[in-house]
Amino acid sequence: MGHRGGGVTPEQLFEPRSRVRPVPDDLSATCFDVIVIGGGINGCGIARDAAMRGLRVLLLEQRDIGSGTTAWSTRLIHGGLRYLEYGDVRLVRESLHERERLRRIAPHLVRPLRFVIPVYAGSRRNLLTIRSGLLAYDLLAGCGTTSRSLMLSRSQLTDSEPGLAHDGLRGAASYFDAQVTFPERLALENALSAQEHGACIVTYARVTRILPRRDGKVTLHIHDLLTGERLTAHGQVVVNATGPWVDATLGRQGGAALIGGTRGSHLIVERFSGAPQAAIYAEARTDHRPFFVIPWNGRYLVGTTDVQHAGDPADAIATRSEVDYLLTQTNRLFPDARLGVGNIVRTYAGVRPLPVTDARTTAAITRRHSIHHHRGAFDRVISLVGGKLTTYRLLAEQVTDRIFALLGLRDPGCATASQPLPGARPNPNARITYALPPSQYARLRSIYGSRTGFAPRHAGETLLAEVAFAFQLELAETAEDVILRRTMRGLSSDSGFDLLDTVVPAAAALLGWDARRQAIERSTYARYVQRFAVPGPAGNTPLDVESSA
Ligand SMILES: Cc1cc2nc3c(=O)[nH]c(=O)nc-3n(C[C@H](O)[C@H](O)[C@H](O)COP(=O)(O)OP(=O)(O)OC[C@H]3O[C@@H](n4cnc5c(N)ncnc54)[C@H](O)[C@@H]3O)c2cc1C
């Protein structure tokens, strides 16, 4: 069964999966043109572009597609207004143009979002500074589809956002950027598109060693984390797109460290008293750092912090001091909110794959990406440093151009700026779900776009169909993949535990999971979601936070 999306019939969806893992038997017999390590937004974007240009591509991901930094972001597709303060006009212009491209190729996933910047007496940035910044922002955006910014008087603001603190309020600015509610799925749709163009995608496959060969090719040692098998793969060029793991992936042969990651933490809270209509981009009262309170998936996303992070990025969790900081800032901005730890639905944290730098503050470290072409024995290896969700497509285009130059092949050119992602293509099957209640249909559209046509005609069967779709056609291998990164239902409930009772038996029927595997899936899920819990009181932990997006 191919990865066609909406074309599958309900009967096919529930047939046992013919192939347990999509690992080709002859993996080590093929020499791929390019092997991409890392299935985050950047790795998936590169796999898509390279496959669309006709290269033989292998993508290896140690966990699930989009399960790394991509899932731990603030989920904005934005120009980065604050980068103007650091004079990074090129990054802002590129990001704004990419924002418009992503809205065209994935309108179901990337949607416009209105921001309000309130200005108070004593704010570091006054109304005039913000106005000039937004004028530049509008100009750099060009004639895109997103509306222009405007200034709001104090009374206009208190009319539209009555919950904001009134004391010392001077006025505000309003402008549009965009939100990707589920960046996990943006990465996935890139992976699915790559697969449609012939790429081989293997998840739960950790690269343990990169071995340059005398003949100019590169051999990778791989640990299949689902079967325990040791595999090898060979490629002409290897792209190390492992985000904050870039140095760990290179190992000791990699030379000087490339990444100096900083942790950013977020809170998810229920709608609170005085909650805003728009996304609020505010300056923290205590330390003047920027932070966001953003309507997200029926709740509010509050973030973020910017703290030096040591240790494995996979272990990053929000510390209690970060949680307290974010709660304090939100309560100052929305006095009726009175949020406490008990109001937090979950927390999450990720490590930005930023470059090693001697910048004075973490906020000053550039968010621009760089493409690091190694020399010497590793001259067929390219590592990626930094970047944003927003600019992943551009990064992928630049990396794929570089691969063609390295291989000395004729480059047919990049088409990803105009070719819609799978869920944005016209699909006549989408209409069969019209019998669903409008809210359920809207939820499915916001996740699967035009591929919603797979869903059954009756609301009661939707969950089962989504689970089957995830395992059959969306590269899911574990219960956690399905709950947290395919159906996205685990992000809407408190923990997603309730879904295990549907997902695990369905997987047993489709994939033949035995009792032991079912038990492992349940306990692995329970362990994984512990990271979302609010940490206990921090004792003497200092308030070690810097906030920015
Ligand atoms: C707190 C925070 C907020 C952010 N907010 C925004 C925002 O609002 N907007 C924006 O545009 N950007 C934002 N970013 C930046 C953006 O999220 C990242 O730049 C982007 O997600 C990086 O994607 P990536 O594919 O390079 O890395 P990742 O998503 O981390 O992907 C790397 C993948 O490599 C895999 N991997 C690691 N080692 C191996 C191995 N040995 N073998 C196989 N696979 C391996 C990992 O499992 C992982 O899935 C934010 C980042 C953070 C941390």
Give a structural overview.
- The chain has 549 residues and is of the alpha+beta class.
- It has helices spanning 10-13, 41-52, 89-105, 127-141, 154-160, 183-196, 246-250, 320-333, 392-407, 438-448, 462-473, 479-486, 489-492, 497-511, 515-528, and strands at residues 31-37, 57-60, 76-77, 110-120, 150-152, 169-180, 200-202, 205-212, 218-224, 230-240, 262-269, 279-283, 290-296, 299-303, 307-308, 344-352, 370-373, 381-385.
- Strands 3, 4, 5, 6, 11, 12, 13, 14, 15 and 16 form a ten-stranded mixed beta sheet that branches. Strands 1, 2, 7, 8, 9, 10, 17 and 18 form an eight-stranded mixed beta sheet that branches.
- Residues 37-43, 60-63, 67-70, 72-76, 78, 206-207, 241-245, 249, 264, 304, 350-353, 384, 387-390, 549 line the site of flavin-adenine dinucleotide (FAD).
